[in-house]
Amino acid sequence: MIQNFFKKVTLALKDGSLRKRILFVVGALALFRILSIIPIPGVNSQKLTEFFSGSAGDLFGLINIFSGGGLSKLSIVMLGVGPYITGSIIMQLLTMIFPKLKEMYHEEGELGRAKFTQYSRILTVPLAIVQGIGFLLLLEKAGAVSSLNAIGFFANLAVITAGSVLLMWIGELMTEFGIGNGTSLIIFAGIVAAIPGNVSRLFLTFTPAQIPMTIVFIVVGLLVILGVVIVTEAERPIPVTYAKRVRGNKVYGGVSTYLPLRVNQAGVIPIIFALSILLFPQMIFKFLATVPNEIVKNISDFIVGLLSNGWFYSIFYFILVFLFTYFYTAVTFDPHAISENLQKNGAFIPGVRPGQPTSEYIAKILTRITLVGAIFLGLIAVLPMAMKAVTGITSLAVGGTALLIVVSVVLDLIKKIDAQVSMREY
């Protein structure tokens, strides 16, 4: 296995086209890291550190993951790919409400998907403006950003909105001209870039009394990685047979193969969706809690308090991950389209009639295996919060989510590179 891995790496680096794709991704990520250390005007570093180490640190630590680490430095790309992810979520939710959007996404081919993506891009701009206003006002009240006049405020807003759109564009270029999903890779790069700093802080505060707890964390972390890999790679094969066709003196078909259905079709997307839904209201109500109006303040305090409750947050998070796993699977995998393709190619599932019965059979199996994937993904998502409740270490919730994203992105990237290498081998 190790020999095969090194063989694939050697082939990837030797192939000119593939090497260009890899170097393009590396260059784009380097540009992103440079942008993420350029701060907006008026940042108070000391107040910013206090803000992130205070009660808001847990919430904004999670938001910082989606900004690729830009928020913790209040960089020009502090919003990261968050607005684009939120825009994509809203568009995919709308496909369940408006049949025309669903038709555009599923039935109009590449042109339809390009239009759909364009709507997500357009929606990113107003979302970035709304999030930018919320962040700037909240950070200004905390003293992390100097109080600016109207011109200075709108200049900062324009810069961070443009930064978010620029990052969205870089992510799409990486998807098109590089390898893997550009948006996921930007989040991944931000998480990995923070590892050296976190490790150095851990060593500075480390004491011998922490050795047993550290061993437990390492074991649990390895088990989480193993679990994510197993569930991500697990498949349920459905046998498929191609009917025999005689053309002249030659016989075509009669081959038996299988249709692989993944236990977790959605990957890490449900966790990203669930976190976006959870974090956005928290950010809004934290800002509204500072409004002078007593009624608005009381309602905001109640909702923030409810979302800050460990039990409520964990249960709600689990439910959202569970539902989004089914939702995203339904959006991206259409049993009816699979059934039609099998029928057009003269293929059938043994013991199942072609057409609607085949579609229902595939949907039934998909529902069952997705149940396993959704429950497992939900449990893995709330596990860091359970460990945080036991140990009292707030950084575990952030670290656990980051670990899930990193493992899923690495698996996806390895698959994409392997597919490119295999294509060139044949």
The tally of beta strands, per DSSP, is 5
State the major sheet: 3 strands, antiparallel
Write the H/E string, N to C: HHHHHHHHHHEEEEHHHHEHH
CATH topology of the largest domain: Preprotein translocase SecY subunit
State the helix count: 16
| CATH architecture grouping of the largest domain | Orthogonal Bundle
List the main descriptive attributes of the protein structure presented here.
single chain, 426 residues, mainly alpha, Preprotein translocase SecY subunit, 2 domains, 3-stranded antiparallel sheet, two-stranded antiparallel ribbon
Please describe the topology of this protein.
Elements: H1 2-14, H2 16-35, H3 45-53, H4 57-66, H5 82-94, H6 99-107, H7 109-142, H8 150-177, H9 182-204, H10 211-233, E1 235-242, E2 245-247, E3 250-252, E4 256-262, H11 269-288, H12 294-308, H13 310-332, H14 335-344, E5 347-348, H15 356-391, H16 395-425
Antiparallel strand pairs: 1-4, 1-5, 2-3
Helix pairs in contact: 2-8, 2-9, 4-16, 5-7, 5-11, 6-7, 7-8, 7-11, 8-9, 9-16, 10-15, 10-16, 11-12, 11-13, 13-15, 14-15, 15-16
Gist?
This protein is mainly α. It is 74% helix and 5% strand.
Q: How does this structure look, described?
A:
Strand 2 (245-247) and strand 3 form a beta hairpin. With 426 residues, the protein is mainly alpha-helical. The strands form 2 sheets. A 3-stranded antiparallel β-sheet has the order 4-1-5, with helices on both faces. It has 16 helices and 5 strands. Helices cover 74% and strands 5% of the residues. The chain is globular, with a radius of gyration of 24 Å. The longest helix has 36 residues, at 356-391. Helix 10 runs antiparallel to helix 15 (356-391). It has helices spanning 2-14, 16-35, 45-53, 57-66, 82-94, 99-107, 109-142, 150-177, 182-204, 211-233, 269-288, 294-308, 310-332, 335-344, 356-391, 395-425, and strands at residues 235-242, 245-247, 250-252, 256-262, 347-348.
